[in-house]
């Protein structure tokens, strides 16, 4: 039986800001956006008390919490702290699956320090992270990834919770359906309409019914309702895409302005791809409008992108294809996917964009 830990830093971006700026401590803080525009990337627990959440429009967050302090994100600072946290993980196990800068799964079935239990490992990790960074982490310990994730969320912030094999099935049955990994707001609403409100309700549904209602996800729901998750912790999980986006201070519907604002995003995406030694065959453009509706446009190519100029050419082509616009744009983003490791046999071929 595996021993899995899920580590989730508490309000990571906001906590780093509060640590580094004493004037922000014990105050409601939102990272990202601005007082009236943009989107909240992260919120401190003081802000969450007022209902402020990540991905919330800044104007909404401001209405919920008039004293909210907006802070510009400092990604280099967050990456540096994330590297410190990763070093702590590596002292305990080589089997680490990062999910984000502030979150990871660890398989500690065998641990490098020879500690007696996964709970001891999680306790040591949390204490070491706090000693080195001054930040708190919540940890969930269980026998699979699904339950470890549920456990880390159970008593946040600054908590350690264990779900043993004996506890697992009953714990899942009592779990509100919205707390299941993979059940987003739309799926939760659908399940609620069907009378599925808890894990017990989900467990009562036959596999064929779940497949008919939820497609391929039905198999997953059937298993996790019984506390079953056989996914391994993948130490070298492949990155699926590389992207960047930006929210404007003023909406615009002018092609020239949007094309100009796309340029630094292309620089970021290509720099990461170069550093990771990967190439891509799919380019995606994202536009979010003034009413928060959004569209994506993508193009897949027969051969990998050759260089940054080719990425720009494809991206601007996608932007041109989106015109004319019926609404002004508040956010633009770009991403590359269908990634593969760059071979040692030379540069990717130039592309024939007529295909």
TrEMBL record:
Pfam family, one: IMS_HHH_1
Annotated site residues (Substrate discrimination) in this chain: 13
Free-text remark on how the cofactor is bound: Binds 2 magnesium ions per subunit.
Cofactor(s) demanded: Mg(2+)
Keywords attached to this entry: Cytoplasm, DNA damage, DNA repair, DNA replication, DNA-binding, DNA-directed DNA polymerase, Magnesium, Metal-binding, Mutator protein, Nucleotidyltransferase, Transferase
MF (Gene Ontology): DNA-directed DNA polymerase activity
Signal peptide (from-to): none
Reactions performed catalytically: DNA(n) + a 2'-deoxyribonucleoside 5'-triphosphate = DNA(n+1) + diphosphate
InterPro entries: DNA/RNA_pol_sf, DNA_pol_Y-fam_lit_finger_sf, DNA_pol_Y-fam_little_finger, DNA_polymerase-Y, DNApol_IV, IMS_HHH_1, Rev_trsase/Diguanyl_cyclase, UmuC
Protein family membership: Belongs to the DNA polymerase type-Y family.
Subunit structure: Monomer.
Protein name per the record: DNA polymerase IV
Organism: Methylorubrum rhodesianum
């Amino acid at each position: 039986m595996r021993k899995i830990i899920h580590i989730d830093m508490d309000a990571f971006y906001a906590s780093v800001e509060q640590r580094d700026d004493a004037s922000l401590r014990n105050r409601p803080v939102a990272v990202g956006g601005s007082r009236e525009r943009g989107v909240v990337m992260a919120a401190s627990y003081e802000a969450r008390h007022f209902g402020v959440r990540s991905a919330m429009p800044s104007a909404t967050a401001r209405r919920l919490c008039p004293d909210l302090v907006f802070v510009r994100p400092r990604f280099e600072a967050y990456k540096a702290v994330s590297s410190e946290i990763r070093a702590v993980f590596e002292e305990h196990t080589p089997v680490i699956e990062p999910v984000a800068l502030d979150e990871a799964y660890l398989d500690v079935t065998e641990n490098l320090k020879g500690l007696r239990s996964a709970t001891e490992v999680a306790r040591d990790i949390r204490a070491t992270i706090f000693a080195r960074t001054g930040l708190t982490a919540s940890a969930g310990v269980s026998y699979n990834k699904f339950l470890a994730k549920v456990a880390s969320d159970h008593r946040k912030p600054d908590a350690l919770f264990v779900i043993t094999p004996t506890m697992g099935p009953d714990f899942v049955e009592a779990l509100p359906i919205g707390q299941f990994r993979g059940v987003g707001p739309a799926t939760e609403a659908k399940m609620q309409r069907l009378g599925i409100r808890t894990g017990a309700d989900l467990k009562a549904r036959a596999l064929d019914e779940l497949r008919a209602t939820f497609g391929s996800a039905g198999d997953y729901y059937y298993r996790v309702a019984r506390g079953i998750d056989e996914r391994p912790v993948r130490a070298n999980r492949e990155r699926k895409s590389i992207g960047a986006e930006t929210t404007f201070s003023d909406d615009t519907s002018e092609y020239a302005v949007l094309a100009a604002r796309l340029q630094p995003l292309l620089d970021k995406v290509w720099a990461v791809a170069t550093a990771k030694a990967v190439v891509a065959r799919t380019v995606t453009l994202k536009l979010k409008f003034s009413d928060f509706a959004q569209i994506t446009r993508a193009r897949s190519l027969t051969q990998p992108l050759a260089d940054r100029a080719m990425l720009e050419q494809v991206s601007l082509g996608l932007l041109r294809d989106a015109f004319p616009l019926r609404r002004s744009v508040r956010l633009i983003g770009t991403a590359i996917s269908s990634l593969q490791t760059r071979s040692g046999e030379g540069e990717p071929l130039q592309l024939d964009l007529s295909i």
